[in-house]
Amino acid sequence: MKNLKFYSILDKVLKSLNVSYPLDISFIRPSQLIKPRPREPFPYTESIGMGSVKEDYSWGYEDCKDYNSIVIIVMFSDVAVDYYIRETLTPSLMQELNNVYKKEICFYDDYSLIRKEIATLAGLGKIGRNSLFFSHKFGFNCKIDLFLTDIIFDSYTECDDSNYKFEKCASCNICVKACPVNAYSNFEMIDVFNCDKVITPDWDTPEKMCRNCITSCPWSKKLLRKLYAGGVPKNNWLSRPRSKLTNAE
């Protein structure tokens, strides 16, 4: 498939969903993720998961070899929790592509692939000192998703994991100091439990969730001001999180 054809299909989906938020897209070959290297490509992957439990994510990368492409989507979002990209946009795009090919050609990995790592490999951004993904277009104000597909595109991004750290973080420690529970150190999350406590005090009021490590970043602020000046709406939840009670039901 020509990449331009993919973008026309994406545009059709966005119009049907009435979504005008900006996106950044990249295409990579799964084979680029399976080349011999350490179990955890980046040091920060050790801190992903539940607390100090270091999960083995390598199986997810091995599963990719059965597909031709990975499509990575980064979507602007300036709110704490918004699952719209995962629950609505990605499924809608996958379904439209399946319809075009008249068969199931897109597949979801159920988060076996680490989103911020893949987005970094795909050239869409870097990792900040707060261990979060810093999008080249949106700063820390974004959400990431991806899907696997049998589609072969006419061009791909060449993956490079040699320098994953956001260069502006080298001489800056503002986001780390802004964290009320000292959850971050040197591009890694070192205390996911206390971070989770301040991020999710009340699912019914996500606007009160802590975003200090995001909102304190001067480079992310600069990009955000530019996006607002360009007409991107502020503080707009496309899909507000359901309460704990609703989830329990």
Based on DSSP secondary structure assignment, what is the total number of beta strands?
Answer: 8
* Beta strand %: 5-15%
Radius of gyration: 18 Å
Share of helix among residues?
Answer: 25-40%
Mean pLDDT: 82
In DSSP terms (H or I, runs of 4 or more residues), the helix count works out at 9
Biggest pleated sheet: 4 strands, antiparallel
Topology as H/E string?
HEHEHEHEEEHEEHHHH
Structural class determined from secondary elements: alpha+beta
Strand order of the largest sheet: 1-2-6-3
Tell me the span between the first and last alpha carbons: 42 Å
Shape: globular
Give the uncertain stretches in residue-range form.
35-59, 243-249
The tally of domains stands at: 1
How are the SSEs placed, and which strands pair?
Layout: H1 3-17, E1 23-28, H2 58-63, E2 69-76, H3 84-101, E3 106-107, H4 115-121, E4 125-127, E5 133-135, E6 142-149, H5 174-178, E7 184-185, E8 188-189, H6 192-199, H7 212-215, H8 218-229, H9 244-248
Antiparallel strand pairs: 1-2, 2-6, 3-6, 4-5, 7-8
Helix pairs in contact: 1-3
